[in-house]
Amino acid sequence: MTTQTYKTVPGHEVTDTMLEEAAKLFSENYGIWGEHSGKAGERVQLSARRLRQQYLPSATDTVVSYYVIVTVDGYLAGNAFACRWKYDGMTVCWVTQLVVHKDYRENGLATGLLTSLRKTTDDIYGIMSSNPAACLAAAKSFGTTIEKISLDFIRKKAYGIMKSSPIPYIRDATLQGTIFQPEDTSGLVSGVNTSFFVDHEEPQKVLQAVRENWQWPLGDLPDGHEYLLVMQAKHRRPSTYI
Ligand SMILES: CC(C)(COP(=O)(O)OP(=O)(O)OC[C@H]1O[C@@H](n2cnc3c(N)ncnc32)[C@H](O)[C@@H]1OP(=O)(O)O)[C@@H](O)C(=O)NCCC(=O)NCCS
């Protein structure tokens, strides 16, 4: 029998040692660079310093970041970074990073990590990811299913929500797909152009498998792009705290 333990740490309590472990997990398990990246075939790497700079913005009255880990029998098996900020009187909770160790995938750990992030005061959840499994995990954790995602909500609200983000790569992402530009012929329905040229072979295999079970609503993914999922929280109530 294995023991799974989830732990959430507020950004200001995240130590350099935690980030070194997070950087190792990411660099060994996230994925490899794709054809147009200039580093094709090499592992995508992240340092502890970049994790802090890019994913743990300093807390303010309206911004708080979080680091969530799952250990299996004491071993770091997966983690997620998230940031909450205010937009138009609402609390946005955005998953900024998510990775599960290769040996522990398809056991519900990503879903468990995102479920641990959920708060009753959240109004909106968001994630950008090239991996359909991350989108499935987010939809389920935040109270819906991928087939019930409102593309209309994403079309109307994503721009304002993302422009208000304290995280530069979210703020600077260019919205792409037929919900934003009906004339788009790339096959993408809801996504962002982040010029993140990670290899899509693995996400492509996941997509094929996912399409056997689900009506996948976000379309096909061109190189350098990620899927975009923005959804309303299920149990909404007026919130003053983040
Ligand atoms: C994406 C990732 C985090 C998913 O982690 P995981 O722990 O395997 O995810 P879960 O077990 O919670 O699965 C979530 C859903 O995706 C499905 N899924 C996961 N892997 C799948 C696969 N290879 N093929 C088909 N479906 C898959 C699961 O069945 C589950 O759906 P369900 O709830 O309908 O059963 C993991 O694959 C990973 O770290 N990939 C590399 C990094 C990455 O792409 N991160 C996302 C960037 S934000």
From TrEMBL:
<feature type="domain" description="N-acetyltransferase">
    <location>
        <begin position="9"/>
        <end position="174"/>
    </location>
</feature>
<dbReference type="InterPro" id="IPR016181">
    <property type="entry name" value="Acyl_CoA_acyltransferase"/>
</dbReference>
<protein>
    <recommendedName>
        <fullName>N-acetyltransferase domain-containing protein</fullName>
    </recommendedName>
</protein>
<dbReference type="GO" id="GO:0016747">
    <property type="term" value="F:acyltransferase activity, transferring groups other than amino-acyl groups"/>
</dbReference>
<dbReference type="InterPro" id="IPR000182">
    <property type="entry name" value="GNAT_dom"/>
</dbReference>
